[in-house]
Design a protein that fits this description.
The structure is a homodimer.
Chain A lengths: L1 H20 L8 E9 L2 E4 L1 H9 L6 E12 L7 E11 L6 E12 L2 E12 L3
Parallel strand pairs in A: 1-6
Antiparallel strand pairs in A: 1-2, 3-4, 4-5, 5-6
Chain lengths: ~120, ~120
Amino acid sequence: MADINSIAKQFTEFYYSTFDTNRAGLQSLYRDASMLSFEGQPTQGAAAIAEKLTSLPFQRVQHKITTLDAQPSSPTIASLIVSVTGLLLVDDGENPLQFSQVFQLIPEGGSYYVLNDIFRLNYGA
Amino acid sequence: MADINSIAKQFTEFYYSTFDTNRAGLQSLYRDASMLSFEGQPTQGAAAIAEKLTSLPFQRVQHKITTLDAQPSSPTIASLIVSVTGLLLVDDGENPLQFSQVFQLIPEGGSYYVLNDIFRLNYGA
């Protein structure tokens, strides 16, 4: 699964660097059928998802990936599920927050778009 | 997405209660094409996955679900992605461990099997 893992690595590096520097630029990764669950709140469609992501109430954010796993998600197309755990540094906060995020990536024209996106913060026990 | 959410809730309640009381019973949820990534270690196929799960080095375990999210994962079949975060109590340990787990469930004969399963412990920052 070397290829799957390198696709997952490239995608997540692009996704989080875009999130951290130019959130509006994430819209191109989603389509009309795309779904986002952000802390349990559902949103559908590229425009609505971009609106949701750009309206999150922080100015500066930095994602650091801790673990990254990927698996093929279909016997018929080259889609994949990518599961990330990591740390989120928000504004001038000194205590990073743990998060979990899952994507399903669908191949399209030599690249991929995000069909599924589920994000959760992980609060301590 | 009420239906999706109730399927996800039923599945995860069954999965974790089986895991915590009769781990070998999980084999019936997987098929030959099923994939498990457990702490980054890949396993494929129902028998190999059951062997992996039953050989995990703890005697007693209890899963507690903290968050549960589900989305449809295909435009053509009624499959779904289920994302769980929760706490794991192992043997007589007093400090629960946080975990993240992702499943893709595929419909089959009025029920579902697990095609994808990605499990990670979340260590503190």
